[in-house]
């Protein structure tokens, strides 16, 4: 399912970094990736980010996000937080 995938974009300002688009609304061309270390390793090995995102190659932000997501899935959450929409249009 698409809702399980991470949207990735090239960093702003001509940066070669690949950035996770948490809200899935950043401008520009995007690429999609399963949030797993295995899929990230395969994408890096195949140099998929450079092709999909016009030369972007730095994956540190993506690695941090996937590692944090893996740890969050293993670690139980003490209390759930309530997320409020940024504007009234999401109601």
Structural overview:
This protein is α+β, with helices and mostly antiparallel strands. It is 32% helix and 13% strand. The protein has helices at 37-45, 48-52, 60-74, and strands spanning 6-10, 18-20, 30-33. The chain has a three-stranded antiparallel beta sheet with strand order 2-1-3, covered by helices on one side.
Helix share, percent: 25-40%
Q: How far from one another are the termini?
A: 23 Å
- Oligomer status: single chain
* Side-by-side strand order of the widest sheet: 2-1-3
What are the segments in which pLDDT stays under 50 over at least 5 consecutive residues? Answer: none
The radius of gyration is 15 Å
Strand content: 5-15%
DSSP helical segment count: 3
Q: Main sheet? A: 3 strands, antiparallel
The total of beta strands comes to: 3
**Average of pLDDT:** 80
- Helix-and-strand structural type: alpha+beta
What shape does the CA trace take? globular
Could you give the order of the helices and strands? EEEHHH
Please describe the structure with a list of short key phrases separated by commas or semicolons.
single chain, globular
Entry summary:
The longest helix is centred in the C-terminal third of the chain and has 15 residues, at 60-74.
Please outline the helices and strands.
Blueprint: E1 6-10, E2 18-20, E3 30-33, H1 37-45, H2 48-52, H3 60-74
Antiparallel strand pairs: 1-2, 1-3
């Amino acid at each position: 399912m698409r809702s399980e995938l991470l949207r990735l974009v090239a960093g702003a300002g001509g940066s070669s970094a690949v950035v996770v688009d948490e809200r899935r609304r950043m401008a520009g061309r995007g690429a999609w990736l399963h949030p797993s270390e295995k899929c990230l390793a395969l994408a890096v090995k195949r140099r998929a980010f450079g092709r999909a995102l016009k030369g972007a190659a730095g994956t540190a932000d993506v690695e941090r996000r996937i590692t944090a997501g893996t740890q969050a899935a293993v670690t139980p959450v003490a209390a759930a937080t309530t997320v409020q929409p940024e504007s009234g249009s999401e109601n």
